[in-house]
DNA sequence: TAAAAATCTAAACATTTGTTATCGTTTTAT
DNA sequence: ATAAAACGATAACAAATGTTTAGATTTTTA
């Protein structure tokens, strides 16, 4: 729980009493590799903070094909945040790709934080802003960069991804097929 | 300014005194069609609220090609919000497509609001969350829907877009060429 | 440790999407 | 009102990307 407390302290001004009260409402939980943390069609009532490990977020399209839209790493928050906010049934699957230690923030804790922490709303603002920036980058890359360029730059955002995630999941994240990624690596295409 | 005040009142609890103090720090400004509101490579220090009109957000890639990443409509906030938050040089161009009435929120007003409005951080949180949800949707569609599906559903997010925006800009937003959109409309492709 | 499963590359072929050019129509600007 | 520019459809062709299948290698599981 200490790692989680340190992250909070980096984001907002918060004393030990507030930290105690808040973290008491959170739950440490460890997942095994390939465990599913969150499924589609269920209203998500949890935000996860990752102490160690890696979580993949996927969406399934109308044809049943699975698309990796995100990898979440150490010291990051992850959730089906849209559906969490809107209290609507989830659209994503969250799955651990390694043994993953998390801190779970139940909805009750989050709402308690907004109401009772001196800088609770600021914390919520910073988390939302952080992911906004990340997503903005995503969208810009999808529009203005080729798959090859996205591949070449993926380690900017996910430093050791090549050692931790199979290539076909990286291809999915890039928005291409594994076969095509294999081709791009050979360098025949621009 | 009344429209802007009403929008604020819908988002947070705010009295007339606070509203007066805040809106005094904002500036009403009208732009002509095709005016540029914000350019790349300049640190953006403003958020725009749209009373009427429509603003297009574009990014230019390495080859000099322009991509439309967003249309902002009435009663929405729009900015190069990532760069605004990070105080970094802008990457987007904001351009009005109609005569557009805006309220400008200078950085000074935003920061004043966070510090002095009772629910300032909550307002910031809600705005960031709102755009997070919008972007999340964008990304999911880019991954899990075909261009044709994105075209068929575009009026969900932009109701009267077909009457207000030329088709080649819609194509750009969909991530395809105008020629290809023309093809899709004919219905030969899935 | 051995069998099974997952992974990556490769090739051949199919489909989607982009590019260029043309033409008629509509919109804009003088 | 008229000339210029922008716009959208279309066709022919080119390039990018997907699909299927096969085989070799690595990783996982029993």
Notes on the structure:
- The structure is a homodimer of 190-residue chains.
- Helices cover 48% and strands 22% of the residues of chain A.
- Chain A has 10 helices and 8 strands.
- Chain A has a 4-stranded antiparallel beta sheet. The first copy, chain A, has a 4-stranded antiparallel beta sheet with strand order 2-7-4-5.
- The radius of gyration of chain A is 18 Å and the shape is elongated.
- The N and C termini of chain A lie far apart (46 Å).
- Chain B binds a DNA duplex (30 and 30 nucleotides) through helix 9.
Secondary structure layout:
The structure is a homodimer of 190-residue chains.
Chain A: H1 2-11, H2 16-24, E1 27-31, E2 36-38, E3 46-52, E4 55-60, E5 66-72, E6 77-78, H3 81-86, E7 93-96, E8 100-106, H4 107-116, H5 120-144, H6 147-152, H7 154-157, H8 161-164, H9 167-174, H10 178-186
Helix pairs in contact in A: 4-5, 9-10
Chain B binds a DNA duplex (30 and 30 nucleotides) through residues 146-147, 166-168, 176-183, 185-186, 189-190.
């Amino acid at each position: 729980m200490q790692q989680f407390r340190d992250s909070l302290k980096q984001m907002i001004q918060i004393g030990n009493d507030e930290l105690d009260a808040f973290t008491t409402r959170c739950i440490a939980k460890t997942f095994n590799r390939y465990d599913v943390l969150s499924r589609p069609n269920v209203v998500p009532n949890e935000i996860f903070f990752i102490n160690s490990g890696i979580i993949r977020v996927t969406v399934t399209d109308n044809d049943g094909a699975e698309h990796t839209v995100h990898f979440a790493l150490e010291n990051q928050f992850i959730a089906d945040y849209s559906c969490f906010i809107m209290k609507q049934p989830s659209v994503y699957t969250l799955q651990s790709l390694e043994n993953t230690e998390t801190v779970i923030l139940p909805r009750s804790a989050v709402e308690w934080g907004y109401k009772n922490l001196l800088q609770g709303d600021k914390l919520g603002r910073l988390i939302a802003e952080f992911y906004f920036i990340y997503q903005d980058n995503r969208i810009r890359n999808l529009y203005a960069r080729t798959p090859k360029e996205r591949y070449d730059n993926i380690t900017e955002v996910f430093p050791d991804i090549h050692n931790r995630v199979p290539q076909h999941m990286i291809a999915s994240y890039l928005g291409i097929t594994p076969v095509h990624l294999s081709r791009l690596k050979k360098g025949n295409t621009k």
